[in-house]
Amino acid sequence: MAYVDGFVAAVPNANKQKFLDHARYSAQIFKDHGAAKVVENWGDDVPDGELTSFPMAVKKEADETVVFSWIVWPSKEAHEKGWEKIMQDERMNPENMQMPFDGKRIIFGRFETIFED
């Protein structure tokens, strides 16, 4: 079954196009190293919560939007091999890639797919 990297971040509204450009650039790198699919989603209806929420998790500020993203890999093994190559890819060098959001407020995890319909 597939293996998934999941991400949630807060992106300044003024950086929406920069984020999209960054996503396209990054997606090509991930796919070059084995990712099957890269999905980026710009928040449309992401409410604040009382105890927990996406906005709270990333400490979203008033002028930001929550993005929800994932990368699908064919397997955990493909993910591990892919990330090893991605970390060595010159295109990932911070001089070549500027993140259009505060990377300290991103949350991420890796997930084993256990059901898909």
In words, what does this structure look like?
There is one protein chain. This protein is an alpha+beta fold and 117 residues long. The protein has a single domain (3-112), classed as Alpha-Beta Plaits. Helix content is 29%, strand content 27%. The protein has helices at 16-32, 54-57, 76-88, and strands at 3-12, 37-42, 64-73, 107-112. Strands 2-3-1-4 form a 4-stranded antiparallel sheet. The longest helix is centred in the N-terminal third of the chain and has 17 residues, at 16-32. The radius of gyration is 15 Å and the shape is globular. The two termini are 12 Å apart.
- Outline type: globular
Mind describing the biggest β-sheet?
4 strands, antiparallel
What is the residue-mean pLDDT, rounded to a whole number?
A: 95
Number of strands: 4
Strand content: 25-35%
State the CATH class: Alpha Beta
Overall helicity: 25-40%
What is the name of the CATH topology? Alpha-Beta Plaits
Based on secondary structure, the structural category is alpha+beta
- Give the spatial strand order of the biggest sheet: 2-3-1-4
- Radius of gyration (CA) equals 15 Å
Low-pLDDT stretches are none
In short:
The chain is α+β, with helices and mostly antiparallel strands. It contains 3 helices and 4 strands; from the N terminus they run E-H-E-H-E-H-E.
